[in-house]
Amino acid sequence: MIRQITSIQNPFIKNVLLLREKSRERKTRELFIIEGVREFNLAVSGDFLIQSVAFCPDLLPAEEIAKLPRYSFGSNLFEVSRQVYNRMAFRQDAEGIIALSKPRLYGLDDLCLPSNPLILILESVEKPGNLGAVLRTADAANLDAVIICDPLTDVYNPNTVRSSIGCIFTVPLSVSTTMETITWLRSRGIHSYATSLGSDLFYHTLDFSGPTAFVMGTESTGLSELWLTKADTMIKIPMGGKIDSMNVSVSAAIVIFEARRQRNFRS
User: Fold this and answer.
1) Would you tell me which of 119, 211, 233, 259 could form a disulfide with 190, CB atoms 3.0–4.6 Å apart?
2) Which fold does the domain 2-101 belong to in CATH?
3) What is the pTM of this model?
4) What is the pLDDT of residues 41-66, one digit of tens each?
């Protein structure tokens, strides 16, 4: 049964607003927000546990509403007015669907990796938009996993979900500590390549055809001393301009697609 909501004072709407604004609410309730048809469908395809869905018939065509896989969220379907939808949404008068879902993060030992994996590791990522952009790169390159070490942002921040355009649902994602990740990589024979301006090795001169993990730090401070001393190999990207760093998603794309090129763009 579809329930109608026309007031922004409705408890469901208030709960959505809390989840949108407060990381503590998302962590305590183990729920996060999905906005958009593509993002919703990717979450369903990725077997995320959808708890509830709100749609606005003024913005979402009837034929799209009919396509919603209702088995994925049971009876928790709400029809909302345009005013109510726009109160909840980041992108007003667009898309017309918002869902609440349970998050899903893999433990390191739960990651199902091939014999020759290609992995990206981000340390202390702090900007949700950067994380979302990196996840788009990870999806485009069909990475086997993305590991977040000691994150400084909520992985399921609405800005991450939005900027990833749903790729947060398509890439195996794990959160761990730096030391746990280093130990895990070594136990599996995965070679770690950490990016650092202090390296004398340019990335394009090395062989990434074996089990590989690229490690990236923040744009402001780079990698921690632990990674700088424990990574197997330090690499850098040639910089020909006046600045000495790029956005982390750009840097990640450069080295990841070099590895894909060396592997003839096969998984």
Assistant:
1) 211
2) 60s Ribosomal Protein L30; Chain: A; (3.30.1330)
3) 0.91
4) 999 999 999 999 999 999 988 777 77
For the beta carbon of residue 242, count every other beta carbon within 10 angstroms: 5
Give me the CATH code for the 108-262 domain, please. Answer: 3.40.1280.10
The two structure tokens encoding residue 128: 């949700």
Residues 253, 21: Cα–Cα separation, whole Å? 30
Q: Structure tokens of 16?
A: 């959505």
What the block records as the tokens of 87 is 């109160």
As given in the structure block, the two tokens for residue 14 are: 């208030």
Q: Which amino acid is at 145?
A: A
- Please count the residues of the chain: 267
DSSP assigned state of 220: T
Q: With 0-12 CB in 10 A as exposed, 13-18 as middle and 19+ as buried, what is 158?
A: buried
Nearest to 199 by CA among 180, 212, 214: 214
Strand ranges in the chain using DSSP code E only, listed in sequence order: 2-5, 32-35, 50-55, 77-80, 97-101, 118-123, 145-149, 173-176, 191-195, 212-216, 233-235
